[in-house]
Amino acid sequence: MSKPILTVKQLTKRYGSNTIFENIDLTVNEGDTIVIIGPSGTGKSTLLRCLNLLTKPDGGQIWLDQQEITAKGTDEDRVRQHIGMVFQNFLLFNHLTALENVKLGLVRVKHMPEKAAEQKAMEELTRVGLADRAGHYPGQLSGGQQQRVGIARALAMDPRVMLFDEPTSALDPELIGEVLEVMRKLALDGMTMVVVTHEMGFAREVADRIVFMERGKIVEEGSPDALFYHPKYERTREFLWKITELYGKKEAQS
Description:
- The structure is a single chain.
- The protein is an alpha/beta fold.
- Helix content is about 40%, strand content about 25%.
- It has helices at about 45-50, 75-80, 100-110, 115-125, 145-155, 175-190, 200-205, 225-230, 235-254, and strands at about 5-15, 20-30, 35, 60-65, 65-70, 85, 160-165, 190-195, 210-215, 215-220.
- The strands form 2 sheets. A 6-stranded mixed sheet has the order 6-7-8-3-9-10, with helices on both faces. Strands 2-1-4-5 form a 4-stranded antiparallel sheet, covered by helices on one side.
- Helix 3 packs across helix 4, helix 4 (about 115-125) crosses helix 5 (about 145-155) and helix 5 (about 145-155) runs parallel beside helix 6.
């Protein structure tokens, strides 16, 4: 039986009087791909940012393995080496090549020697299918290629968990597939992943568990078959029907 890597208990985040989410419980087991879905503005992206401490929660606890990372005095930078994150926007340095973007964290954060860092960066670019673009600058790459560089950059740190915050939302429709294919391969390789996405085909095919959030709460979670074909709640059924219809039309038009 897989052991938990991330354990979230009673997690709460507020901005002033606005509660983003409240009392969230979530367990992510080793090797799991968890897909979080739900309407915009329901706290999905904020939850991801709390998981690697880019955003500080206002209540509750998070454990990485047996370490409580929300405890006072936690080294947040060290936590982020173990919990990688890929954002909606690629956040690459435009003045650095793809290789240099991937290598940067290895040198500055992990203090890896230049030659070893370059070798590791090339390995990760090869892993995402971009070995032949190592010397290209972000402006010379498509959006899908830039996002794959972002994935390689996160993978280079050898994280225990990878977080993906709507990684295809900024891409043209014809570029989405190449990013999802990289993510599928990571899942097959056993990478532990938590993914916020509207790509229902990916969720159905790759997820071990789907979590449906609305209004700052987890409404329902279960296997893809359970949520797509036997949801417990009418609201889950309604959301999945609408989102599948919407994105099905977009795919047909593209």
